[in-house]
From TrEMBL:
It comes from Sphingomonas astaxanthinifaciens DSM 22298. PANTHER family: CARBOXYMETHYLENEBUTENOLIDASE HOMOLOG (PTHR46623:SF10), CARBOXYMETHYLENEBUTENOLIDASE-RELATED (PTHR46623). PROSITE patterns: TAT. It comes from the Bacteria. This is Carboxymethylenebutenolidase. InterPro entries: AB_hydrolase_fold (IPR029058), Dienelactn_hydro (IPR002925), Dienelactone_hydrolase-like (IPR051049), TAT_signal (IPR006311). Residues 58-285 form the Dienelactone hydrolase domain.
């Protein structure tokens, strides 16, 4: 793991499967929550290229081994993109009975991984390329990519297209889940945002304003430090969901921004497992 200094946020982007499994197993033993190691069944994993209007997106595709058809799920990564820890999420979710796609959101600029090793968010020079990749993801591109990713998932033999699809996102991926649910309302039945940034803004393209265009149930897991910076956001979200007649579970977790993604000092095993358990419940209810 990376070293951290006060006032700095450092992420180890090379977090390995072994590292995550050890952490989750420890949490499961300590809290009684189901860890990754407890997820039974083998998973088929492949690197794929997804056709989009702007080219081909490199991505990781997962589904349970053996014969069968399962509901589709799209995972939007955080700002550092597709890397080992998100592949682990894909494997874990597939082991629970889903066809999972984890794309590289920056495919227009560079194939994944777009960063490696330890990344210090306070190092502006190091972060500049990543911030430029993020700035290039306009709302129109996000919506277009979401449609392409769901269409790709629906072309997979393992996908059960008769069942609803899910979408989940982390950090910058949080608002992308709102956009996806609005861009593909006929498919998305469950959407989850984990420490999502900018779910409520004063701009006309604020993600919370998209809710009337969606048909999904939502899980919105908010970081405690994000809530401290924007304490009115959760009330605005609750009002927006109520007005759109959309069901939503909105909760502030006792953990900081980034707590669900292994590799940084913000990672909180117990809170991450709780969030995963709530995600599992949402998918069981809406994608069954």
């Amino acid at each position: 793991m990376c070293e951290t200094d006060k006032g700095r946020f450092i992420v180890d982007t090379d977090m390995t499967r072994r590292g995550l499994m050890i952490g989750l197993a420890g949490t499961a033993a300590a809290t009684g929550l189901p860890g990754f190691a407890a997820a039974a069944g083998s998973v088929v994993e492949s690197d794929v290229l997804v056709p989009t209007p702007d080219g081909q997106a490199d991505a990781a595709l997962f589904h349970p081994a053996g014969k069968g058809r399962w509901p589709a799920v799209l995972i939007w990564t955080d700002i550092l993109g597709l890397r080992p820890v998100f592949r682990e999420m894909g494997r874990r979710l597939a082991a629970q009975g889903h066809v999972v796609l984890v794309p590289n959101p920056y495919y227009r600029a560079k194939k994944a991984p777009v960063v490696s090793g330890s990344v210090d968010f306070s190092d502006r020079a190091a972060m500049k390329p990543v911030m430029e990749y993020r700035a290039a993801l306009t709302d129109e591109r996000i919506d277009s990519d979401a449609r392409a990713y769901l269409a790709f998932l629906d072309r997979q033999k393992a996908t059960d297209r008769a069942r609803g699809a899910g979408v989940q996102g982390y950090c910058m991926g949080g608002p992308f889940t709102f956009r996806t649910a609005a861009a593909v309302p006929g498919r998305i039945r469950a959407a989850a945002s984990f420490h999502g940034g900018g779910l409520v803004t004063d701009k006309p393209n604020s993600p919370h304003l998209l809710l009337p265009r969606t048909r999904a149930d939502f899980l919105v897991a908010i970081a405690q430090n994000d809530d401290a910076r924007q304490p009115d956001a959760k009330a605005t979200l609750r009002t927006a969901f109520a007005q759109a007649k959309r069901r939503a579970e909105i909760e502030v977790y006792p953990a900081d921004h980034g707590w669900c993604v292994g590799g940084s000092q913000a990672y909180d095993e117990a809170a991450a497992e709780k969030a995963w358990a709530r995600l599992t419940s949402l998918y069981k209810a809406r994608l069954a």
